[in-house]
Amino acid sequence: MLLTAFAHLSLGLAALSGSSLRAPASMPSSSSRAAVSSIEMSTRGVVITGGAGGVGYAYADVLMREGHWVVICDIKDPDVAVQALRQKHEGGIGKVFGTVCDVSSSESVEALGQFAKENLGTIHYWINNAGTPGYAAYGATKRGLPQLTDSLVKELTVGVPGFEVEKPAGTVNCHTLSPGMVFTQLLLDDSTPELRKFPFGVLAAQPDEVAEDLVPKILATSGNGKAVDFLTTDKVLKKFFGKFILGEKSQYIDDDGNVIKMPGQQYEDNGVAKQY
Hints:
The chain contains nine helices and seven strands, in the order E-H-E-H-E-H-E-H-E-H-E-H-H-H-E-H. It is an alpha/beta fold. Helix 2 (about 55-65) crosses helix 8.
């Protein structure tokens, strides 16, 4: 199961009232100005790493639909994904910007932060969604992420004993985000029919299903060090009950371990549904 992290950056809303989100001159009435002001105050700037596909792309899709401004990055050029999102949400207030970023390079991540600041003004949420190739690095970082989050929370709230830590510009809160098993390249590449039948066919979900569930939870999360999960305990138990007690069939994987392809949906060779 993919385990990621996201940060809720409460850095103030001053940037949201600046020129980047200024009310258009064609709306002069007081009621219109109030409506635009309400939009400005509810719009959030979000950074999503690994956002050119999979659940990262789905997060951006839902966030834009809800009117938020998003920066996506990927190790490959995300321009095609950006154009697809812009076309889908044309006419809405949600916006998207894209850039190349290698999250294994600190210099590249610094450049991503600067790019996001220039395009969003204020970064309210930063979702660390990108995964490193290879199960050794992937598994080790996933296992270590809860400890990393706990340590960051302590450093941000009580500091580091014996060291002077520079305070951030605003309030920064860190949480763990667990989308569970998602039908993406990372999950299905080199998978076997046995794995696809179980556990993938029972527990895995499509990216849009995960994003629809998690984005409202992300936006509603407050405090510090919280866990935001798609596969909650009750959801897992319900899926197991359906599979092993009721004998329900998977809606995604057939009895031979093949991906069930839906009419009108295009798929990659490995069975991943194309998003654009």
